[in-house]
Amino acid sequence: MELLFARNELNEKPKKVQLDKIKEDLSKDGQKIFYFDRDNSHKDMMSLVDALEADGYNVYFREIKYGLADEEYMYEVHAL
């Protein structure tokens, strides 16, 4: 599964990441907060949450609004 990390600047393209890399980062640190771009589908984000929970992590998922427009949001995934 390929996901997009949140952008640092509004006009730049989001960076891609594989599910294996996310799991590798979690195995090193034990817990981590990831921010994902709004271009990811909600279905893909739920698949990520399910995959991490299947590996035994507690996962907190939410949508973060950072502006007033409808498209000004990102996804936050906190895995413990």
TrEMBL record:
InterPro entries hit by this protein: HP0268 (IPR040748)
Source superkingdom: Bacteria
One Pfam family it belongs to: HP0268
Domain named HP0268: residues: 1-80
Protein name in the entry: HP0268 domain-containing protein
Organismal lineage: Bacteria, Pseudomonadati, Campylobacterota, Epsilonproteobacteria, Campylobacterales
